[in-house]
Design a protein that fits this description.
221 residues; alpha/beta; five-stranded parallel β-sheet; 8 helices; 37% helix; 11% strand; disordered N terminus
Length: 221
Amino acid sequence: MINSNTILVSSKTSASVKVNSHHQSLITKQLFWKLFRFHAPQFVIKPENKEIIYSVFRYFLHQPDFNDYGVIKNKADLDKGLLVYGDYGVGKSTLFNTIHEVGRTIVTKTQNTQLWFPRISTIDMLNQYYKSQKHPSSNFKLENYYRGKLYLDDLGKEDKAYNREEIIGKLLFERHHRKFKTFVTTNENPSAITARYGNHIGDRLPEMFNIIKWEGKSWRE
């Protein structure tokens, strides 16, 4: 087990509270780590995955040195979202789902939205889209996901809507246009994402995301 004193090694950001542009106190790494372990006591940080995990932690804690390990494949920028792609079962979704729960806990208790983001899988979004087409009274609208922070899980696993429309591609395009942060986990690499959704999406990936490749052995084996 890696204890909280070793997390976010060599951070240049003080553990003391700072103020961000939205006049919220930044979440300290000690509070983040305490809540992370509470929500995911079985999550294992190993030598082979720690650099990626710590980089993601630092990103969400708004630390300028979040890419000190050099895991970002393009130009690192805290104003971009995150796209984490790679092997099945390495912990991508678990990591982001846990950070989501940490953010939920904090925003419920303090109204601090630094770590808060809604989450949905692309498969679930497509299913909700189908239901909304059958039931006009449905409150689901794709446009509702164009704004604010958003975590999309399993990008690329969803089918085309009615075998013809790429609603997730449309969503990504609109979110890029509006400059809102998006977090994505997927088994598809950027080339496959480009092939799936088109060059108008592929060309925007480096502008929209800090891109991280996560390789490793599946936890499910």
